[in-house]
Amino acid sequence: MMSLATKLVPEVVKNLIPYQSARRIGGQGHIWLNANELEQSERYGESESYNRYPDFLPQLIEQAYLDYSGSDFLTGRALQCETLAVRGADEAIDLLIRTFCQPGEDQIVICPPTYAMYEFCADSIALKTVKVPLTDDFGLDVAAVKPHLKNSKILFLCSPNNPTGNVIPQEDIVTLLEAGKASTLVVVDEAYIEFAPQTSVAHLIADYPNLVVIRTLSKAFGLASIRVGFVLADKSVMDYVARLIPPYPIADPSALIAQKALQEEGLAAMRRQANTLIAIRDGFVEAVSALPFVAQVYPSSTNFVLVRFKTDDCLYDYLLQKGIVTRNQSHDPRLARCVRISIGTQASMAETLQALKDYPFDPKKITTV
C-alpha cells in the first residue's frame, strides 16, 4: 500500500537524487584527495580538522538524540521512528515544507497565535496558509481545523506553544492525526518539550506515520548558537526529507558540542537548568500576577511567560528604557497589550520585577480587558 508520504510528495522530489558529496560517497584509504580540501591548514581552534568537510549525516548525534528521546526523562517508552539532525528547528520546518509542498499550488494549516516561521517558510515558496485561530483561552479549535485537512499537505502545531506557552492536549492531537490519516502530515513542534516532558507525543509516531515531531537543542539545552535540531518521523516520511538535506548539514564543532550535551553529564546539566528555570518562572509569575495593572499572566509550560497588561500598551518600550529587552507581541490583535518575557537568572528576573513595580501607572487610565 502506498504510504501517505509517497502520496503527498511532489513528483520532482520523488525523482530527486541527493547530491553525492565526497563524504556521502565515502571510501577507505589513508590519502584523501576526493573533496578539494586542503590537507593542511592554519589552526583556528582546538580542532585539527577544520580543513575537512564534516560527516554528511551526523549519525552519532542522531543516535544519541534518539536514545535520549526514548529515555525515562521524556515518556519512558521506546520510540519507533527515525531521526534526522538539522540546523535548528527552523531548518526542519523549511525542509518539511519544501519536501512535501508544491510551490504555488499546495496549502498548509496553522493555528495562530503561534510560531511565525511556519507561515514565513510557506510564503517563501508561494504556498497558501490557512489560519484557524486558537480559542479565547488559546486552546486548539479542533472542529474548525478538521475540515481543512483534506486539502492541506501539512498541519503545523506548536506544543508547548510559542508565544502563548500552553500545551495542546494529546487527545486533540490524536483526533487530528486520525482525521488527517489519508491526507495530511501533522507536524508537532516540541521545541520547549523539556519544560513539560510528560506532554510529548513522539511515542505516537509508531501508530501514526503521518505524525512528525520537531525538536531542538536551543532551549532547555541552552545551545542556541550551535544550530542543532532534530526531526523525528516514520521511515516513510524520512526517506523523502533526507533527499533534500544539504550535503554537510551540521558543522563538526556544533556536532561535537551536541554530542557532549547528549551524554549523561550533559543531560544531567540540562535537567538541572530546566528545573531551575521552572522554579524561577513560577516565582516570577506569582509576583507579576499581583501587580494591579496586570490583566493576566498566562499559564506557561516553557521558559517564557506571556503577560497582558491593563495599560495602554504592553510596556515593551518602558522596559526597554530600563535596559530590559522583551518581545512585543501586540502586533497580533489577539495579543493586544501583551509582552513575552523570557525567563533568565534569578537576578535578571528580580530586576525585571522591580522595574515593573516601579512603573508609574495611573489607576484612572487602566484599560478594561
Short description:
Pathway: Amino-acid biosynthesis; L-histidine biosynthesis; L-histidine from 5-phospho-alpha-D-ribose 1-diphosphate: step 7/9. The protein has 369 residues and is of the alpha/beta class.
Structure description:
Residues 43-356 form the Aminotransferase class I/classII large domain. InterPro entries: Aminotrans_II_pyridoxalP_BS, Aminotransferase_I/II_large, HisP_aminotrans, PyrdxlP-dep_Trfase, PyrdxlP-dep_Trfase_major, PyrdxlP-dep_Trfase_small. It contains 13 helices and eleven strands. By secondary structure, it is an alpha/beta fold. It folds into two domains: 4-262, 3-Layer(aba) Sandwich (Aspartate Aminotransferase, domain 2), CATH 3.40.640; 267-365, Aspartate Aminotransferase, domain 1. It has a seven-stranded mixed β-sheet with strand order 1-7-6-5-4-2-3, sandwiched between helices. Helix 7 runs parallel beside helix 8. It starts with a helix and ends in a 12-residue tail after the last helix.
